[in-house]
Amino acid sequence: MVLLSGPNLDLLGEREPEIYGYQHLADHVAEAVDEGRRLGLTVEHHQSNHEGALIEEVHRARKRATALIVNAGALSHTSWALHDALVAFDGVVVELHLSNPAAREPYRHTSVLASATDGMICGFGGLGYRIAVNAVGRLLGLAAAQTGVAAKSVVPPAADSVPRPEGWA
Ligand code: DQA
Questions:
Q1: What pLDDT sits at residue 165?
Q2: Which residue of 92, 134, 159, 163 is most buried, as measured by CB atoms within 10 A?
Q3: What is the average pLDDT value for the chain, to the nearest integer?
Q4: 97 in active site
Q5: How much is the average pLDDT of 15-44?
């Protein structure tokens, strides 16, 4: 599968860490590669700050990759050209965001890519990379994907940080 990272994601770890966390893109890619290995899928990663270069990578993935995971950064909200390239890709497409764009500024509420994808994972920080690969595995019908995401993750499980009243499910 091919994992695509769009503009400014090369600055992860330094860029608005209160929103995107302190981990670097390489850490997230390592999570995706590890989950892919568990499922028997190779993960090939490309990052670019250029719309056209990302579109070229989608074209290159055609007839060669079973799936695309795309965190297109701000291009998710603007790029109909990237949308059209994704429509021309035959395999599984998962849109991915570290943050939850729907809970942020209004201009982030619309993804123009969404209608060209099978689904979106957002708001789970770095854990989303592992979840996205697992989602691809499930959509491809891989048995190992049915057991859920691997326990090993650099991101603590969300349940650890969510206070739950005694006795609540
Ligand atoms: C992002 C969300 C986008 O709105 C933003 O422009 C990004 C990162 C995310 O991963 O949360 O660059 O795609």
A1: 74
A2: 134
A3: 92
A4: yes
A5: 96
Ligand 1 center to 73 CA (angstroms): 4
Cα 113 to ligand 1 centroid, rounded to whole Å: 13
CA distance 96 to 73: 9
As a whole number of angstroms, the distance between CA 54 and CA 114 comes to: 16
Write out pLDDT tens, residues 92-131: 999 999 999 999 999 999 999 999 999 999 999 999 999 9
Q: Residue 144 has what pLDDT?
A: 85
Selecting among 28, 45, 83, 97, the annotated active-site residue is 97
Instruction: Give the pLDDT confidence score for residue 151 in this predicted structure.
Output: 52
From 8, 97, 121, give the residue whose CB has the most ligand 1 atoms within 8 Å, as the site to mutate: 97
Return the ligand 1 atom nearest residue 97 CA.
10
Per-residue pLDDT of 125-156, as tens digits, reads 999 999 999 999 999 999 888 877 655 555 54
Domains and CATH numbers, the chain: 2-161 (3.40.50.9100)
